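Long-time lurker, first post. I've been practising inverse folding by hand and with some scripts of my own, and I keep getting stuck on stretches where the structure tokens seem ambiguous. Below is the full token string for one chain I'm working on. Before anyone asks, I'm not after the true native sequence, just a reasonable design that respects the backbone. If someone could post their per-position residues I'd love to compare against what I wrote down in my notebook.
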């Protein structure tokens, strides 16, 4: 049997109990990686992801950590001997106008969307050998100036900068890139009609899919000569 591209590698994927994080974890497992499934409060969902990965013939286990807590992040890496891939997928999103955004919401967005990826990158880098890959899941908002989602726009914009700075700091052994999705995963409370209508406003005229984001992550994980890149997967939305 031909070896899979990521066989014998271990990946730590934050927020991988559900939605995009889960899809990324499964995509990595399908290419042969063993997965550390991180979750914050969704234990049942995380254990389901673990079972799905094990059904693919890969090893997996779940680890809980509140990403607002630096000590919890450090503890999450305590039992890891070797790590090859880190995907910072977990995030929070507040749809609150600039003047109504509370200090708690602002701080939570910075803690989860920016500070946690910084701390996770530090911890992961210590566990990576001569080669490692870190992928940050950014957002189209990071390249826009959203006044109704200011904490998202600002925290993801800073995450983009963290990606570039850490790519330089950790080269040549560790590559760091980011994927910036646009309309890729329909909110649970949105109708299909609303989702498709919004997609028509994109330069490519339609919404994307979660699988397209997963495929981009897998591309960057495997490409040996890309680092410090912010790859928009948004149907051209960043051009508007």
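-- Answer (accepted) --
I ran through it position by position. Result:
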């Amino acid at each position: 049997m031909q070896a899979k591209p990521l066989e014998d590698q271990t990946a730590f994927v934050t927020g991988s109990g559900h939605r995009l994080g889960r899809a990324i974890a499964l995509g990595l497992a399908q290419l042969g990686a063993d997965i550390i499934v991180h979750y914050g409060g969704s234990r049942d969902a995380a254990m389901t992801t673990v079972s799905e990965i094990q059904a693919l013939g890969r090893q997996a286990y779940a680890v809980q950590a509140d990403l607002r807590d630096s000590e919890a992040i450090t503890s999450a890496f305590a039992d890891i001997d070797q790590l090859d891939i880190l995907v910072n997928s977990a995030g929070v999103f507040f749809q609150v106008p600039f003047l109504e955004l509370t200090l708690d919401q602002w701080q939570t967005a910075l803690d989860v969307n920016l500070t946690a990826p910084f701390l996770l990158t530090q911890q992961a880098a210590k566990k990576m050998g001569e080669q490692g890959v870190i992928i940050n899941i950014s957002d189209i908002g990071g390249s826009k100036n959203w006044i109704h989602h200011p904490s998202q726009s600002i925290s993801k914009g800073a995450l983009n900068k963290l990606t570039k700075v850490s790519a330089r700091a950790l080269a040549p052994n560790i590559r760091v890139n980011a994927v910036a999705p646009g309309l890729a995963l329909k909110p649970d409370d949105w109708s299909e009609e609303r989702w498709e209508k919004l997609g028509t406003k994109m330069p490519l005229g339609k919404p994307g899919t979660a699988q397209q984001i997963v495929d981009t992550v897998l591309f960057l994980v495997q490409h040996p000569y890309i680092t410090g890149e912010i790859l928009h997967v948004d149907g051209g939305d960043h051009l508007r």
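A couple of notes from the structure itself: Residues 63 and 79 are 10 Å apart (CA to CA). The mean pLDDT is 95. Happy to go over any region you disagree with.
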